[in-house]
Amino acid sequence: MTFYFLLNNIFEFQQLTERQILRTYLLQDASIGYVWIIYIYLICALLMPLLVHVDLRKLSHVVACILIFCLYLAIIDLSDSYLYRIFVLYPIIYGLISVIGVNFRRVDRRIWVAFGILCLAVFFAVAICLWQENGVLVRTGSEYKYPPRVYYLAYTIGCSLLLLSAAEKLKHRLKANRVVTFIGSSTLWLYLWHILGLQIAKRLTESEPVRMLIVILFSLAVVYVQSTIVAAIEKRTGKNRVLSLFKG
Q1: Alpha carbon of 201 to those of 14, 16, 244: distances in Å?
Q2: Is the distance from CB of 32 to CB of 195 less than 8 angstroms?
Q3: Structure pTM?
Q4: Separation between Cα atoms, residue 207 and residue 193, nearest integer Å
Q5: What's the sign of the alpha-carbon dihedral 90, 48, 243, 224?
Q6: What is the pLDDT confidence band of residue 60, given thresholds at 50, 70 and 90?
Q7: CB 94 within 8 A of CB 40
Q8: Which of 78, 168, 225, 235 would you call most buried, defined as having the most Cβ atoms within 10 angstroms of its Cβ?
Q9: Cβ atoms within 10 A of the Cβ of 137, count?
Q10: In the prediction, which pLDDT does 52 show?
Q11: What is the mean pLDDT of the chain?
Q12: DSSP secondary structure code for residue 139 in this structure
């Protein structure tokens, strides 16, 4: 973020106030944008020592997760407060999503495929209802994402489970693919660098597809150079925990 702000002072990608800069470091709303995912990572990391003990092969654990999800749906609209979202709603829902990740290889893949199909069926049902109500196809945008609602969750979880299940069949090929391995091990840095790439793309073109291509290529190039530099330094000085953080 500090590097981004230094570049912003030179090229003026965004007009930022001191308050926005502070909010960015605090991972809050009304910042430069896109930094909320870092807070989600922190939530999941803090909860993980507890979540690893949740075993979805046990019926009691499954029932507990369902009840917690029902509680989440019941309290989702109790407050519009930002603090309520980040300290109450986000830990609940992203904790439950993390439980799915923890249990993905414990539970039979066919069950995840069935659950993924069920999620997508719910998504299409909600999409049809919203279309009938609004007269247009409603996107799973910010209104349904902050905090995550059924419409957004059904789509993202359904697609993720089906893609992960398909990837399990191809995991040996995927692991042998250096591009896939590189991207998979560098997702956080790719995400962080895409923030700068997006600002550059906005100045270069108005075309959304071209912007997307620029962001992807920029992020991949910068992270590749970053990882190469870190690997070269480690080769000379030996492995370092701090340096390894910059490799992904």
Answers
A1: 13, 18, 29
A2: yes
A3: 0.80
A4: 20
A5: negative
A6: very high
A7: yes
A8: 168
A9: 9
A10: 94
A11: 85
A12: P
Helix axis angle for 208-237 and 187-204, nearest 10°, is 140
The answer to whether the CB of 136 falls within 8 A of the CB of 101 is no
- The single-letter DSSP state of residue 136 is S
Which of 246, 105, 229, 225 minimizes the C-alpha distance to 168?
Answer: 105
Q: CA–CA separation, 184 vs 95, rounded Å?
A: 21
Element (H or E) spanning 198, and its range? helix 187-204
CB atoms under 10 Å from CB of 233, counted, come to 13
Q: Is 243 exposed, middle or buried (0-12, 13-18, 19+ CB in 10 A)?
A: middle
pLDDT digits (tens, 9 = 90+) for 4-58: 677 666 666 667 677 777 777 766 666 666 777 888 888 899 999 999 999 999 9
**Which residue's structure tokens are 């308050």?**
19
**Lowest mean pLDDT across 20-24, 118-122, 153-157, 220-224:** 20-24
